[in-house]
Amino acid sequence: MIITKVVQSAYRRLRTSYERKKYTPYTIAEYFRKQGAQVGEGCFIVPTDLGTEPYLVKIGNHVAIAAEVTFVTHDGAAWVFRDEVPDLQVFGPIVIEDNCIVGIRATIFPNVRIGANSVVGAGSVVISDVPPNSIVMGVPARAFGSLERYREKCLERWAQQRPPDAVLETGETWWNSRHFAANRNQLREHLLHVFRDQLA
Prior knowledge:
A six-stranded mixed sheet has the order 2-4-7-10-12-13. Helices cover 30% and strands 17% of the residues. It is built from five helices and 13 strands. The chain is α/β, with parallel strands linked by helices and 200 residues long. The termini are far apart. Strand 12 (134-137) and strand 13 (142-146) form a beta hairpin.
């Protein structure tokens, strides 16, 4: 009986792993929707797991989620009260609104809403709501400058770092241009030139 359960559990894990491998970061939303998550359009999602209750996760349109982001939709600390209430469980939803990015290895806790047009820095632990148009980072995550100031810095840096000979078709992005390989080679050479003093 125990051996049968172990084999069945291993088979389920293997089948789930195989199922996830069929998707890319651009198409994994389809897999998450099958699990009950609400996921918008135009997302780039690297993780293949939304936690133990994916149906409590809502992701808006044009959201990017980097590798190893963890979604925690249950409060495991309720464990300390299980002597008193053996079946005690506490849950909460996670909502990420439109046009956000969540950096690598961030952790998002239950009952958190990340407002539209926000940036969650890499490695951050998000335990409370993030207002729209915000940049947050740290443990726990807290406000870190304005989105408008960050936009200005990005545009200023890209003006210096963009390869002068890069070709981009109208309506295409850096990543889906048919000239991506050539552009990337030019980018490498250009960045090595731009940062030559720091890398010397």
